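Q: Could you fold this chain for me?
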Amino acid sequence: MKINIVHLYPDLLNLYGDNGNITAFAYRLRKRGIEADITQVQCGDRLDVSSADIVFIGGGSERELLTVADSLRPSAGELKAYAADGGVLLAVCGGYQLLGSHYVSGGNKIGGLGILDICADEAPERFIGNIVCECETIGTTLTGFENHSGKMNIGSLTPLAKVISGSGNDGTSGYEGVIHQNVIGTWLHGPLLPKNPELTDYILAKAIERKYGKSELAPLDDTAEMLAHDYAVKMFS
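A: Sure. Below is the predicted structure, expressed as structure tokens.
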């Protein structure tokens, strides 16, 4: 069994250690005897998600995100078709902004990839700090770090989680992130997945199910991961 992970622009989109999310995917697959094949896509490379099981987009500075947006826009149709076909995609912070029709930065409206019917306007001040939220879909708390000036409008789509402490999508709605089919967008850095193993396994299970049919993931010893998770929840709730 093998899961193909496509990692978009790891050299540019690695704010707050987002590449650690790929490490978490690979670790939890290999501990279960499942091969993790990781393809890194850099600026200028041709994007091919025809054999992808998971696509990951991390976060970066505004300048780096603009470079990535310009580079990815010609492949927007391919990514949108992948997502519509049930493809698993995780987008963090800047990558979250790229999922929508547009985002606003420095007063400029920048076109996104149009994968989801969402958009991010610009807040008058940044939302910065640790965040804890409750994810009903998975039945667990999520924790991470947010640092964004985007106010995400997810319209009628389902939020990923309900904010316990922190700002979340826009500082006022009380919700964080978005989940639609097998696409997840979130502001949470940290990196996100090492401290939230249940979310990691949820995403992996969706990828395995899409490729091989429904399959139960063997449990792992998550003592260390849950110590980090529970400490963050206790500290920042």
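A (continued): The chain has a mean pLDDT of 96.
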